[in-house]
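Exercise 7b. Backbone tokens:
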């Protein structure tokens, strides 16, 4: 388990590009045949990736979280950004197509990731192999497991083609959807011709947010903005790389092409619209 310690805004001015990437970028989440996880001390979030690549993978406990099994004191949101796969939680099998979201609550002892069983009718999506994105936060109680297929959550159409940020937002785990202790999670997809994922940029000083960028062409990149509004920095992000955004940091991004991203938050509350805008005129 990789560990990232908490940072504060006074550190930003003295950080090099390498420093910023070491603190806030998680570049290698999806490794065939592995479960890879990173622990950030910002709201004690764990994010990771599981790529079965033809073999079953178990999510185990880790010494860093002082748990005999991973969900002993935690909850977990899972979104599949690869081909169809399965997650088996204490014997219950859930099939996740591309873009599906699964919530698992505190107390589930066994979590196993696998690719879907191939058959003569296997679709290209299934044959591609599953890639599960994991987002976990501490939990004080247990909520029921819940599976949401793409388009079955709360769908919001946002932005405008004129400002290059027309996008479809799917809310899965949130206060009016799948219930959790802390996690708020969903997927946003930009429409063709749009590149900004949110504008104006914003902060929400009561929650840490992590972004997983995906559906980016191999030669495309997202320029992710971070820092305070009067001391901004940026990171260049490739396909299937994640960003840790502390509660004090603004976040926005623009791509060289359209893309999708998983957004996931944990912290003081679960109100999606609890955010403070950083107007473009204030950015430096």
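Sequence design result:
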């Amino acid at each position: 388990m990789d560990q990232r310690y908490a940072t504060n805004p006074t550190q930003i001015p003295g950080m090099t590009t390498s420093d910023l990437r070491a603190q806030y970028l998680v570049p290698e989440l999806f490794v065939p045949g592995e479960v890879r996880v990173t622990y950030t001390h910002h709201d004690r979030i764990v994010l990771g990736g599981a790529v079965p690549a033809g073999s079953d993978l178990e999510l185990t406990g880790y010494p860093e979280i002082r748990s005999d099994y991973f969900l002993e004191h935690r909850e977990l949101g899972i979104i599949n950004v690869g081909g169809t796969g399965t997650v088996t939680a204490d014997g219950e099998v859930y099939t996740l197509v591309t873009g599906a979201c699964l919530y698992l609550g505190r107390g589930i002892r066994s979590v196993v990731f696998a690719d879907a069983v191939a058959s003569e009718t296997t679709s290209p999506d299934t044959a591609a192999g599953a890639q599960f994105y994991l987002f976990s936060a501490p939990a004080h109680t247990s909520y029921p497991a819940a599976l949401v297929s793409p388009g079955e959550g709360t769908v919001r159409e946002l932005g405008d083609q004129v400002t290059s940020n027309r996008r479809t937002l799917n809310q899965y785990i949130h206060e009016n959807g799948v219930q959790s202790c802390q996690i708020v999670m969903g997927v946003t997809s930009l429409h063709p011709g749009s590149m900004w994922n949110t504008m104006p940029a914003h902060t929400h000083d009561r929650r840490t947010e992590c972004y997983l960028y995906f559906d980016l062409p191999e030669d495309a990149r997202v320029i992710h903005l971070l820092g305070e509004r009067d001391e901004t920095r940026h990171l260049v992000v490739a396909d299937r790389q994640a960003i840790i955004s502390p509660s004090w940091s603004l976040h926005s991004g623009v791509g060289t092409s359209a893309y999708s991203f998983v957004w996931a938050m944990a912290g003081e509350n679960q109100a999606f619209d609890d955010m403070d805008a950083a107007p473009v005129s204030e950015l430096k």
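Instructor comment: The two ends are 35 Å apart (CA to CA). The first strand starts at residue 2 and ends at 4.
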